[in-house]
Amino acid sequence: MSLDNAILGWLSTGPGSGYDLVRQMDLGLNWFWGAAHSQIYPRLKELEARGLISSEQITVGTKLEKRVYTITDAGREAVRKWTSEPPTYPPNRDNERLRLIFGDHGDLKAMRRHFETHLDHYERRRESLQEFVDVLTSRQHPRIEQRIAAAMSEALKEITLAAREMAYRGDLRRAEFEIEWAKECLAWLDDFERRHDLGETSGTDELPASVSATGT
Amino acid sequence: MSLDNAILGWLSTGPGSGYDLVRQMDLGLNWFWGAAHSQIYPRLKELEARGLISSEQITVGTKLEKRVYTITDAGREAVRKWTSEPPTYPPNRDNERLRLIFGDHGDLKAMRRHFETHLDHYERRRESLQEFVDVLTSRQHPRIEQRIAAAMSEALKEITLAAREMAYRGDLRRAEFEIEWAKECLAWLDDFERRHDLGETSGTDELPASVSATGT
DNA sequence: CCGACCATGTAATATGTTACATGATTGT
DNA sequence: ACAATCATGTAACATATTACATGGTCGG
Questions:
Q1: Contact, A31 vs A67, CB < 8 A?
Q2: Mutate: best of B82, B105, B169, B186, partner A, most A CBs <10 A
Q3: If you measure CA to CA, which chain B residue comes closest to A177?
Q4: DSSP assignment of A18-35
Q5: Which of A53, A117, A170, B204 is the most buried (most CB within 10 A)?
């Protein structure tokens, strides 16, 4: 399971609790894998049962129990094995594109909303990635710095940093690309509306007559 | 379910069998949703039970039975409703990036294989998308042309074509971007190996001494 | 007559989401 | 004391993958 590998990979950069992982995955948009806590806790148990991680119970305050997991040598070996296999590419599942290509009924308001949502989504993502990349580049990311400090050679230190720069900067540019695309689509829409004199129609759906091919 | 919407959307461009859908989804890389036949057939039954599609049994040759589905008005309405909602963005699940950031153990061969796999994957995808876009732009795609022909107004015809141009050309550029990224990563690797005099080491894993932080 | 492809299904398993459930800590 | 957040779990349901299963058609 890739979720297992995401967990192991993250624990390979330092110990952490299930809750830490949850936060990485749902709050940190900067992360390449997402999962709900209901999926994470059971996996941690199983990884421990398989000997890939070990845990230690910690009590916060008087009663709050917290379990901190640490990767084992077997776990480290599993990460190494998994990362040395080439990436796999699951089938595309893009509800955004699907909605776009089948939403060609002439509802211009919906199309506009579509592109604006896309733009907004990737602008947020860009911002959040930009912040992460800034932290990374200014060498302020604690877990990554730890990993660099632990590296045995200059070459390994460089690889550790470079791998992340490539990954996160690549994603940043992906986000920038999506923003650009959404803006171009919006520009097309603007032009379309101008050409079809739909500048200030407002109120009802645009193209009211032409839409009724099937009945609305 | 988005799979249902993908099926409905596709059937909204003309009737087709389950097998036709299977081919769209696994052979045609040009498609924005992927699903196995084992998932498609049961969904078709359910969509029919819900009255969103209807089917007709056709016999090919003497015995081979084939079921051709046609979207109903209720189905068309469902597509319209679904496409007018803004897109949603599921959590990222990118095993490629995950492998990259946690695969920083100094196995340069694995890193190279990683980038080459990425490059290869997106070059194939680009090619296949390019073909599709060419067919689209030269107005040779039968289903899309049918849909354009059925559109009630010039404005709707334009939207039908433009939505697909935006979607597919956008994906084409995505693929081109990934190719560019992979090439840059490979260039970094080349440079890294040059700087660390690992030009012609061959045989064993690169960086043999420095890797042994944990064992191996 | 044989291989490639057409055509459709079920079952078991794996993975992911949403809802339900509980209680502690920390800062204000 | 109250809210936000820490912290961990289970159950039900939805979705997706892999394996198992069967048989027909068509062209060479």
A1: no
A2: B105
A3: B174
A4: HHHHHHHHHT-TT-SB--
A5: A53
Domain regions of chain B by residue span:
2-84, 95-210
For A2-84, CATH gives 1.10.10.10
Q: Which of A89, A102, A207 sits opposite B83 (nearest CB)?
A: A102
H helices within B95-207, ranges in order? 95-102, 108-137, 142-150, 154-195
Residue A9 CA distance to nucleotide D8 C1' (Å):
22
CA distance to A110, B91, B104, B139, per residue, from A28 (Å): 30, 11, 21, 44
B136-193 pLDDT per residue, tens: 999 999 999 999 999 999 999 999 999 999 999 999 999 999 999 999 999 999 999 9
Q: Is strand C less than 7 A from the beta carbon of B17? A: yes
Residue type, A53: I
- Residue B110: which of A84, A94, A171 has the nearest Cβ? A84
What Å value separates CA A70 and C1' D27?
62
Please tell me the distance from the alpha carbon of residue A35 to that of residue B162, in angstroms, as a whole number. 36
Radius of gyration of chain A measured on its C-alpha atoms: 24
Task: Give kind and range of the element (H or E) at residue B47.
Answer: helix B37-49
Half-sphere exposure of residue B181, counting CA atoms within 13 Å on the CB side?
25
Instruction: State how far the Cα of B45 lies from the Cα of B35, in Å rounded to an integer.
Output: 15
Instruction: Find where tokens 């950069």 sit.
Output: A13
Chain A residues whose CB is inside 8 A of the B162 CB are: 188, 192
Greatest CA separation found in chain A?
Answer: 71
Among positive and negative, which fits the CA dihedral A179, B32, A205, B139? Answer: positive
- How far is the alpha carbon of B128 from chain A, nearest alpha carbon, in Å? 14
pLDDT (mean) for A56-84: 93
User: Residue A153: what residue type?
Assistant: S
Helix axes A2-11, A73-84, angle to 10 degrees: 120
> Is the CB of residue B85 inside 7 Å of nucleic acid strand C?
no
**What average pLDDT values come out for chain B (216 residues) when binned by 10 residues?**
96 96 81 94 97 94 90 97 96 95 96 98 94 94 93 95 97 97 98 82 47 42
Residues of A in contact with B201 (CB under 8 A): none
